[in-house]
Amino acid sequence: MRLLARLYGFHLPFERALIEAALRHGVDARIGARAHLLARDLVDLGADGAAIASLPMAEPPALRSPGEWLGAFYMREGATLGAARLSAALDPLLGAGSARGRRFLSDAGGWRECCAALEEGASRGLLPEMIDGARASFEAIEHWLADQSFTPTSSIALRGAPSK
């Protein structure tokens, strides 16, 4: 639960920044909302809405250009590939075949659309900016997850496995 709470605190503002930057830069890509899946997972595992609403939120990267936006989009969508493996590894804890508690990890996202957007951006000469955006996004999530001062509220405290 602590990891999901931490991921929610990163992904909610990051997702909002992606949507705002897409509109600001006129980027023609659909941003599939996914942060709500983390909130739902937290509820599945026993957190209440007030505790979720009070979680600390990360400061997302600035995304000053279409290329930086594409790099951030790459980081977010690429994370869905590894998340599928994590989701499967939770079978012993959450039960095989159950989506409860791992909707965020199970969502495939828009990887194909992302790859097409990256190819198009690279063909327009945006690769250096794309690399900058991806690097800033990876650094932002790494910093956020490494912050040892994070203490979840009592409703987000680590608990035993939910009933199956």
Describe the structure.
By secondary structure, the protein is mostly helical. The protein has 8 helices and no strands. Helix 1 (2-25) packs antiparallel against helix 2 (35-44) and helix 4 (66-89) runs antiparallel to helix 7 (111-123). It is globular, with a radius of gyration of 16 Å. The model is unreliable at 158-164 (pLDDT under 50).
What descriptors fit this protein?
0% strand, disordered C terminus, mainly alpha, 164 residues, 63% helix
Biggest beta sheet attributes? none
Class per helix and strand makeup: mainly alpha
Q: From N to C, what is the helix and strand string?
A: HHHHHHHH
How helical, in percent, are the residues?
55-70%
Computed Rg: 16 Å
Estimate the mean pLDDT confidence.
87
Global morphology: globular
Total E-strand runs: 0
The number of helical elements comes to: 8
Low-confidence stretches: 158-164
State the end-to-end CA separation.
16 Å
| Beta-strand percentage range | under 5%
Summarize the model shown.
By secondary structure, the protein is an all-alpha fold. The chain has helices at 2-25, 35-44, 49-53, 66-89, 91-94, 103-106, 111-123, 127-146.
